[in-house]
Amino acid sequence: MPDLRQPLRALLVTFGFLGLAGIGRSAPPPTLAIAAAADLQAALGEMKAAFAKAHPGTEVAITYGSSGNFYTQLMSRAPFDLFLSADLDYPKKLVAAGLADGSTLFHYSRGRLVLWVPKGSPIPLEQLGMQALLHPAARKVAIANPRHAPYGRAAEAALAKLGLLEAVRPRLVFGENIAQTAQFVQTGAADIGLLALSLAKAPNLAAAGRAFEVPLAAYPALDQGGVLLNHARNRAAALAFRDFLRSPEGAAILRRYGFTTEDR
């Protein structure tokens, strides 16, 4: 009886049923998909590179945006494995809704606000501090949209606490997230902005501007945390990234960008 294995193999390859690698080889794991708060953009760029060295072969795709918008998307089962939020309440709400694994819920940092101007700005930020918002050159003031961005809510709270909100309100311009807010000030669409310290410490903004840290007592704690989604396609890689984020190496990267887990 003739051996039909080779002709059959050729036929299957021709019609796409077999890869060139051959029968029985398992497919590579899916890419780890992370939804991350925009204030993590600089820190996670470094974190991703360090994680790749520790976990070669694991593909990681990070999408940045406002935590509130991600929460809305994840309530509709958006295709992410891991959610890193600038407000720990959003991951908690996903757990309560039965869409995330409560056993994986974790706190990773506390964010901080700064007032930021470009280096060439005529606003004497270092001398005026928060009163710089009342300087005549502060014609447009950028904050993240408080409807869905935790840093926007913190900025609004700080302005109210310091008695500046009513004076500043007519000049406010809103970024979709804190990264877009930073872009507004950096590109001249706004004159001054309330940004995340983590972005102000990123090399591009640190070289291009001047910052004044908003008093911590002026706004509620920006406790940040994450969770694995129940529909995660790459749970193993998501757990590995979470553990790396909380490791001494991960914590050191976060500290370089102004994140802290210390008490206020």
TrEMBL record:
Stretches that traverse the bilayer: none
InterPro entries per the UniProt record, alphabetical: AvModA-like_subst-bd, ModA, ModA/WtpA
Signal is among the record's keywords: yes
Keyword Hydrolase: no
A Pfam family this chain is assigned to: SBP_bac_11
Record key words, sorted: Metal-binding, Signal
Similarity section: Belongs to the bacterial solute-binding protein ModA family.
Name the record gives this protein: Molybdate ABC transporter substrate-binding protein
Annotated gene: modA
